[in-house]
Input
Amino acid sequence: MTGAERDRSGRMDGDVVIGSIGHKQPCWSPVATPSNRIKCYEHPKFLTENSYVELGSYRHGCEPGIGRATAIRLARDFSALVLVAGNRAHLEETAEAAKTAGADALVIDVDLGLPSAARTVVEQALGAFARIDALLNIAGAVPQIDLFEMTDEQWEAGMALKLHGARRLTIAAWPALKAVKGSVVLMSGNSALFPKAPYAAVGTVNAAIVALAKAFSDRGIADNVQVNSVLPGPVTTGRRRSYLQHWAPLHNMTVEEATANFPKEAGIARYGAPEEIAELMAFLVSPGARWMTGSTLRMDGREVKSV
Output
């Protein structure tokens, strides 16, 4: 792990993280000063750590979930976060929570779905902190629409926010990550393993995220950049509630019945919590996970039954 020496608590003095929080859910990425460690998270706008700077993007109309939980968790380990999103109010709320947890936070309000956004975010992060140690792409807002009803525009919007937003931000941050042997995490979802027609784009884009992470990890071997992807299962977020509103009528249930019955239908004991995914994200950018790269980690309560 690059950066300043740890103190007795294990905290890295001066580390910075950048995170992006999509329009409805947050996303994050880290960055740091020459003597500090920096991390980056990216969360596209249509969804739904040691001292770091985090970038986050929130989606409008949905409370924060995994992105916000990850930012707060990393604030215990890192001293600075850069939060990036299209919704400044949500970013500022997360920034306050991160400060309460022990980290300074810089807010950057930008739509990561725009092609120019990644360069803007990285330039501001490097201008403020001089380096980037980690990037966490935590995005989600792919439309949950039936395969035969989804328009080209909806497909393109889902790809632009979750896939291309993460791709562009990772490429833009890569030289800085390479300079410090940094880390990247891309958030996918376990629907990548069992795509369904009623929400085909979700599984398709999640599968593309897994492949993209693998491709980045291949280049990362030569460039000394660690890259992994995470596939969460049913986690209690606004995005999950939106999914259940779509799932319920397909199974002749009310939303309340669907919420109660879904764990049984999925063969899991309960829903996951955003904080549980946040712990996994924190581990992946910690020194203990440094040899882990090119891995796809599923955390879903055994919703996926196959090996």
In short: The radius of gyration is 18 Å. Residues 1-14, 22-63 have pLDDT under 50 and may be disordered. Residues 16-299 form a domain with the Rossmann fold fold (CATH 3.40.50.720). The chain has one domain: 16-299.
